[in-house]
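3.2 Worked example (two chains)
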Amino acid sequence: MLHLTDTKVNATEGNPVQDMIDLGRVAVREEKEKRRAPANTFEASFGYGWVTSKMYDVNGAALDSKGGIEWKLGYEYTWSNGMGIGLQYSGFRKSFSDGGDMTLSYIAPEWVGRSKFDRWILKSGLGIGVFLYHDPLYNAAGFGFHAMVGVEYMLSANWGLGLTLNGVSGSMPKQDWMLLKEDERCGITRFNLLGGLRYYF
């Protein structure tokens, strides 16, 4: 049997158990806030891209040199759980030996994930959008999809540097003059490595 000499409760005195619970909640909340990526991010990147698809000239001859300059502009919004949405425009240009240029454009919304570790941010993304092709003899529009992984370093609360590896694949309508084998489709797949500035707010 427990004998209590005083049944009055002093509400002003601290409760060690409750204090530990409160401290634990504060620590979890602070850790979650530290790992939260900035809500809004603008990206401007520049780099080099490589076409992995087979490419042919108008005479049906295969092209060997398929690298070119690449650029990207994008915006991402991230919720507190690290998931978010974004919109990107990416471009690619390749100059041929005959003096002509091939330009690829891609505009797409995307689903992104971002995790912050101190000043570092790891990111990934997937999306589906519009794929555009242009050269002096042919223009086409179709659908494309992309996948992206990258890392960013926050120089300050508002500015950072980033590096991303991207893959973009687009399909275009086949024309009568295109000579394709049975296992080939009309489209272009490329990979690129980009670096550039980030603005956070």
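3.2.1 Second chain
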Amino acid sequence: MGRAHEVRAASMAKTAAKKSAIYGRASKEIYMAAKAGGADPNSNLALRSLIDKAKTNQVPSDVIQRAIKKASGGDSETFTANRYEGMGPGNVAIIVDALTSNVNRAAANIREVFNKNKGNPEGKVAFMFEDAAVFAFENKTIDETLESLMMADADVNDVIEEDGAIIVYAPFKAFNAVKNALDSMGIEEYLLAETKLIPTDDYIKIEDQEIKEQLQILLDKLDELEDVQNVYHNADL
């Protein structure tokens, strides 16, 4: 499917991102999911996905539980979720998800970063991505993974191997079923376990070093913004 680079991307993100930023984003996401759909992750797919995502990013359990408890207590804090689309150097498609208490601030800051870093905030690229559940883990083979998924009748799109890890792509709504099937294999530590946007076509390989550096700067600047939760793109960096 041409999508393999999830393990490398996750590893780079964990190395580059500050823990405080990761914790803050996870807390905000979990709070909003619990407030909207209830505090039980077994019946709230969005919350379950975000909790698993937080755990793979090594967010402490007390941070997760505080966010859920805050939402359950009827706290009046409100965040608005918005999605922004644009193009980066090398004609790379970029989608930015924001969760903010100030929509005008978030929109202005995101637009400014695009404009100042050789990007175009006017591009329409959502059609180039799809929602998916993505899991990555080690110490298993493709054959035994496929067998477990088939035994559980779990709906998956693809199972591949990358950098010594197994990556499972599944429909967004199949997150819980696939996660339960993988858990039954004895997997306790995931490199990735989350719902995210992935390109519908192959990732773009950037050969020009200057363009690659310009794109990385743009992506880093977007990721550093207070209101930005996730940055998705179709570049193989």
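3.3 Remarks
The CA atoms of residues 133 and 195 lie 4 Å apart.
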